[in-house]
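Thread: quick sanity check before group meeting

JM: Hey all, I'm pulling together slides for Thursday and realized we never actually wrote out the predicted structure for the chain we discussed last week. Dropping the sequence here so it's in one place. If anyone has concerns about the input, flag it before I start.
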Amino acid sequence: MQQADRELIEKILSNDTQAWEFFVVQYTSVIEKAITQTLGYNSQGYVIEEIGEITNDIFLSLLENDYRRLRQFRGDSKLSTWLFRVSENRTKDLLKKQKVLLDIISLEEKDTKELQIPDNRPSIADQLERLEVVRALFTELQDRLSNQEKSFLQLHYFQEKPLSAVAAEMHISIDNIYVIKHRVKNKGGEMLNEFKKLKKIIPQL
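JM (edit): ok, ran it. Output follows.
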């Protein structure tokens, strides 16, 4: 670990607010570049506001649970390189959640058509706005799921395990797995309809 990186991390972990403010100023551009490159765009020419929410989310993730994520930095690479990788993974996680949500809430043909990602490449503003909607929807969905349903969500949708493997890992019958899947999809559909009524969701997720 470079001396400057080590000293900065140590100050942040000791709750030095000035060190944290310096960290944010110093590495915001690194995070923004990671986000836009992960989405397949060049970061030049886009203002901070377009990716501000995702950037803030990444910074906050470093603070959570007594700096748990930040403490994982071991200095095997430069701090900027490590932070780029963290930001890249966080953005990929949002993209994965978008894919999962499309699968869960596409209960009917009309939903599938309405939420389908267009063939033409969306602008970065559209894509970032879509990911912000994904963050809000996914947080809401998780609040509605039981612990058992959350386990199913993780195993089947994120780890992409077949239902038979999920049933074996959760120690329940395959029939019950189908019941759980149906409940998850129903809750996703109900949530989507509520967001539509409140006009909190953009037409193309």
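AS: nice. Residues 3-93 form a domain with the Rna Polymerase Sigma Factor; Chain: A fold (CATH 1.10.1740.10). Residues 168 and 192 are 30 Å apart (CA to CA).
JM: adding both to the slides.
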